[in-house]
C-alpha cells in the first residue's frame, strides 16, 4: 500500500514532466524471481523504472541515501541499503531472500550514478554475483535521458525512455569467484550498452555519433 502511495505521484511526475515512456516492458516476467539491471544517471531512476511495471521493485541503494528527510521516502519506495565500496553480504542476503520469495530486485550494474552523462566504462561484479548465486533471470534495462532531469531548473524538461531487454539466464553457482562474477556482469552490461546506444541514436540522431557499441541494426518499433 505504501509503495503505491509513493509510486503514484512519481508516475504522474514522470509521465507529465519527463514524458517518460517504456519500451518492451513485457520482457519483464509477470511472476517469479527476476533481477532488473539498469544503468544509472539520476536519483529519479528508482521511480522511473518502478512506475512502468505492475510488479513491486525492490532496489539496492547506497547507504548514504538513508538520511532524513529522504530516508523514509526511499525505504517506503522499495529501496534497501547497500554499502558502496565494500562487500556487503547483508545486502546480498536481503536481495536473495526477495528473489527466493518470487520478488523483483533492481540493481544498478555500474554500482553508482554516472556523473558524466555517459555510461561508465565497466559494470561492477556485484550484478554478476547476484545473478549467479540466485539463478534468477536478469533483464537488462537502458534508461535514456534521465541525466538531463536537472535541467528543469533552466526550463528544460527531458524526454526519458526506459527500454527493457530480453531476459538473460546464467547457471546457478553457489560460490562464484570474482572473475566469474565480472564475466557475467560484463555480459549483462554489453546488452545494456547496446540498448542504450541504439535508443539514444534513435531519440537524438547524430550522423557523427557512433555510440560506444557501434550503430548496430535498426531498432524495432516501440511496443
End-to-end distance, in Å?
29 Å
Oligomer: single chain
CATH architecture: 3-Layer(aba) Sandwich
* Strand residues, percent: 5-15%
State the strand order across the main sheet.
1-7-6-2-5-3-4
Question: How much helicity do the residues have?
Answer: 25-40%
User: Taking all residues together, what is the mean pLDDT?
Assistant: 79
Tell me the CATH topology.
Glycerol-3-phosphate (1)-acyltransferase
General description of the model:
The protein has helices spanning 2-17, 45-50, 71-76, 89-100, 126-134, 178-203, and strands spanning 21-23, 34-38, 57-62, 79-82, 104-106, 138-144, 161-164. Helix 5 crosses helix 6. It has a 7-stranded mixed beta sheet. The chain is globular, with a radius of gyration of 17 Å. It is an alpha/beta fold and 223 residues long. The model is unreliable at 207-223 (pLDDT under 50). Strand 3, helix 3 (71-76) and strand 4 form a beta-alpha-beta unit. The protein has one domain: Glycerol-3-phosphate (1)-acyltransferase (3-Layer(aba) Sandwich).
Structure summarized in a few sentences:
The chain has helices spanning 2-17, 45-50, 71-76, 89-100, 126-134, 178-203; strands spanning 21-23, 34-38, 57-62, 79-82, 104-106, 138-144, 161-164. With 223 residues, the chain is α/β, with parallel strands linked by helices.
Amino acid at each position: 500500500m505504501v509503495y503505491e502511495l509513493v509510486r503514484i505521484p512519481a508516475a504522474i511526475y514522470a509521465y507529465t514532466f519527463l514524458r517518460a515512456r517504456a519500451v518492451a516492458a513485457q520482457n519483464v516476467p509477470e511472476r517469479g524471481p527476476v533481477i532488473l539491471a539498469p544503468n544509472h544517471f539520476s536519483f529519479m531512476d528508482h521511480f522511473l523504472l518502478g512506475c512502468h511495471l505492475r510488479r513491486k521493485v525492490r532496489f539496492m541503494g547506497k547507504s548514504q541515501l538513508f538520511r532524513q528527510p529522504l530516508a523514509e521516502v526511499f525505504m517506503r519506495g522499495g529501496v534497501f541499503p547497500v554499502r558502496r565500496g565494500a562487500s556487503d553480504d547483508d545486502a546480498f542476503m536481503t536481495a536473495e531472500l526477495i528473489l527466493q520469495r518470487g520478488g523483483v530486485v533492481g540493481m544498478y550494474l555500474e554500482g553508482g550514478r554516472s556523473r558524466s552523462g555517459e555510461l561508465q566504462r565497466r559494470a561492477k561484479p556485484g550484478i554478476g554475483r547476484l545473478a549467479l548465486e540466485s539463478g534468477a533471470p536478469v533483464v537488462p534495462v537502458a534508461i535514456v535521458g534521465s541525466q538531463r532531469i536537472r535541467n528543469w531548473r533552466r526550463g528544460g524538461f527531458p524526454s526519458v525512455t526506459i527500454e527493457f531487454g530480453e531476459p538473460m539466464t546464467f547457471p546457478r553457482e553457489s560460490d562464484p569467484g570474482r572473475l566469474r562474477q565480472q564475466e557475467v556482469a560484463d555480459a549483462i552490461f554489453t546488452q545494456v550498452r547496446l540498448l542504450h546506444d541504439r535508443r539514444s541514436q534513435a531519440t537524438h540522431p547524430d550522423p557523427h555519433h557512433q555510440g560506444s557499441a557501434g550503430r548496430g541494426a535498426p531498432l524495432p518499433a516501440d511496443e
